[in-house]
Amino acid sequence: MAKKKKNKRANGTSMSLAIKRMIIFSSIVLTLEAALVLVALSFYAFDFPKGFKSVVTQWHWVLGASIIIAVDILFVIFSEIHLSHIRRKGDLAAASIVGGDVQEAYNFGQIGLAVTDDDGVVLWTNSLFKERHIDLLDDNILTWQPSLAELRDAPTEMFVKIEIMGRNYQVRFLPEANLYIFKDTTDLEQVTSYNMEQAICIGIIMIDNYSDVAGKTEDDNNDMVAKIRAAIIEYCRDYGVLLRRFRSDSYFAVCNFKTLDRMEKDGFTLLQTVRALGKGQNIVPTLSIGFSHRIDDVNKLSEMASNAIDIAMSRGGDQVVVSHYGEDLRFFGGKTAAVENTGRVQFRSLADSLIGIIRGASNVMVSGHTDMDMDALGACLGIKAICDYCKVPCRIVFDPKLTEKKTRYALIKTFPKAELEKMVISPKEAEEKIRPSTLFIVVDVSVPSMVMGAKALEKSAKTIVIDHHRRGEAFIDKPVLQYVDPSASSATEIITECIRYATANPRIEVSPAFATIMLSGMFLDTGFFKSKSTGIRTFEAAEILKEYSADNAKADDYLKDEYEEYALVTKIVSTIRTPYTGIVYCVCDERDIVERATLSKVANQLMQLKDIDAAFVIGKTQEHLTNISARSNSTVNVQLLCEKMGGGGHFGMAAASFPNASIGAVVDRLQDTLDMYLAEARSDIGGNH
Fold it and tell me: What's the pLDDT at 12?
């Protein structure tokens, strides 16, 4: 192979050297001819030597000019023969490599060749261009195609794409021979494009709140269900999607990528059409849709579509999740908050599954998120109560440096030091002590990087995820049990429901100290039951905790501000700005380091003001970390906006982090995000759902 490359390089170099020698030799010949003519004319003009003028006749001048012309013609013929000889040698060398007529190989491969001089002027091309009536000779291709000039000046080997007379070419440059190689890729690109357009895409379309919409009537007799089905069928017919109903609330869809791409560009208006059917009704119907594509394995496509629909539903429904194999998920819709599910069967099923898995483990570790708040701590304590019931050892992953001040204070103040040491475990110790039989439970978070015991999570063989935030693309890998319910007001609410509705006999006991902290977590995430996420379930969960002797006065006391924090909150609120009607944001001083809980508190306080749809608070939580805390009244999807900035959360409560970014830079990022996505984030239903 090295010898072949050497031969190719030698042939190219010979051609280049021959051309340079021809140019030098022709310059010398022309100079000599010009000098000879100039001397002859001088001798004739001055009659030197004496009698020269009378000796030289008109025929002598004609003869001299004829000789010069003949020499020039012979020189041109010789040059052409010499260059052809060198080119034939190169072609023969290439022919010996491919084993046949190299020109035929070039034509079969649709490869064009062009040799230029140092200035880019084309000196020679092969027959491909001639057959296509493309004349490159004597053209300066560096000025004709600027991208070729970039190719020529590139420090490393690369290629560029150009178009000539409606056909596409990839071009490479060999500097040793001043040789450009043109590969016609038009047919290949057309075939590739056609194959991509016709690639199979699999989807699942599900009516989110089917039981509420259908009610107790028969499916075929329900007017709303009939309208929803008609809308789905009409939309799929218009786009050429094959539709098959496989369950009362679900459809299986098959289409090609061209159709899916059209639906993506359309923004899946089916979501809006179905939502509009519920205007003026007590119940607004919504859809969850999952699509997958870009892999030939149909079974894998089906699995990806199922995962996509799971993500869409776990994020609250009313949205489309498109799973492109090997790429990031794409989200569309999400303009309504999750509808509260008041059914008890799923909670009993979750609780029994949870208890069964816990009993099969040697020990349990439970972790919340970094900057652990009262809700995360309350959920951890609820899991510990369930583990105590199952008589399985349980430790809470706890790092004082990664815990909010109020939460740290409540934990230390409530439990004696000896009891606390038996109850908690540091993230580093958790990583060291985790075993294959250990069950790792994650609450109030589903993003792996945000888990307090992230490294222990990586080593865990069995994981459970329980969260109330809308699921994002980053999710804990392959949990044995997952429950993500965006309609729940808090993680504590979900755990409390599990404790109450488990088929445990005798019932699971929760100590008053645990119940009080759990109630405080519910106070925090619901803004003392003022947030839009507060529903019947929330009050029932609070009632359950009161049955376990939760002290609401003490729970409130855990969340009270010190004077300094109150003054700081007031100071931040005073910076309020309104970039859009109903949208406000506040910024902390660049020199202040504040807790995330303080940012959340300011956002909650802003939402108490009249005519505010969404609020954002920006401040530094560490020296090199700036955070945004966002809240809304459920008319704006702040989760969508925060996801565009690299964060997440759920419909009415979200956040984002920006390492090594100044507050001013984050303000600019927020403004750009609002400019681009606010219209998409605004709900077209309103805040009642």
Answer: 47
